[in-house]
Amino acid sequence: GMIHISSGNEKVILLCFCTESPSPTETDEEDEDIFNKILKVNKDSSQFLQEGDIVPRRSRSAINCRQCNWPQSSDGIVRIPYELDPAYEESHVKGIHDAMAEFEALTCINFVKRKAERDYLSIRSADGCWSNYGRVGGGQTVSVMKGGCMWKGVIQHELEHALGFLHEHSRSDRDKHVKIMWEYISPPDRPDFKKFENSNNLDLPYDYSSVMHYGPYTFSNTTGKATIVPIPDRSVHIGQRQGMSNLDVAKINKLYNCSRCSTILDGPSGSLRSANYPRNYSDNTNCVWLIRTRSRKVSLHFQAFQLQITKGCQGDYVKVYDGSSKSSPVLMDKTCGSKIPNGIVASSNLMLVEFTTDGAQTASGFQATFTAGKKEKLRNYVCYFAVSTNIKQS
Ligand SMILES: [Zn+2]
After folding, report:
1. pLDDT tens string 36-63
2. Rounded to an integer, what distance in angstroms lies between the CA atom of residue 326 and that of residue 321?
3. Can you tell me which residues form the catalytic site (predicted)?
4. What is the rounded CA–CA span in Å between residue 309 and residue 337?
5. Cα of 383 from ligand 1 centre, angstroms
6. Residues facing 121 on adjacent strands
């Protein structure tokens, strides 16, 4: 804008320019692939690592890691004891707990504080982001360094190694899905792209968006040249930013025989409905939907709602949590009947919807839509003022 101020023979012109400056959020960092973050930190690590972040095993043959799975209790839950580095501050502990909570909500893996168990994870802020592959026996370190590894996807990546998962592009069938561009990989880095001929692929599809996939430029020796190219469609996005994918969850549930009904909804908007809707849902089901938008507050709106009515909704119910686990604060407590619930807004980009049914009487169920919510004003304006004076000659 321009403002003229005149007084007598003096004329002052005030000029004001406003430009949008980059927002101070970590947008660029958020956009970075999980694996790039890991490698950036591990560059300075003194730990000897294979494939960028895996501690080599004493016996290298155990790639089909059946003996190194964690044991399952008779109730179907796989409890993995862990200890946390006392050096972590409250925010770090929260970050690690949040990453663990998604395993608990979506799979039968529960991370539990160690009491006296022999085998456990010692989660420490060592030098880098790295882990062993599978259960090793005794206390095994998962390194989640305070500066650099404190991202949900990075923590989940390292925990998945400890659960017995390799990098996705190490699968025996990877050559059908990606082309490794050996010419852009320096000879010392080439073993990191090793393919494991007898990997356990669990009869589940190759997953370009696995939290366990390298990014396209991982270990590239030439700026702008990808080392992993999806085939046949080069434009498929590979690597991950947000956390576990639906296939990551499916693979954990299959490897550990978890009977879980769980879905991640990670689009900017979308919908969810009970199974068979609008026909009746089944008895004795328990499904969860983790809504994980990229940013902003998730809001949920029900379009249809028809559930068996019981006292206190102890039979069939929908319950909604403000976060990614059943230990998160409750946004909507157990709800049943046929009144359409009001819209719900979460305090963050995460919301968990639980649908549980008992063995008696079904109904048509529910249908709801979610959106990422209103865009918050994140723009910063920087203003410059210029003053010019002009004294008139009289
Ligand atoms: Zn890794």
Report:
1. 889 889 988 888 888 899 988 755 444 5
2. 7
3. 158
4. 5
5. 45
6. 82, 140
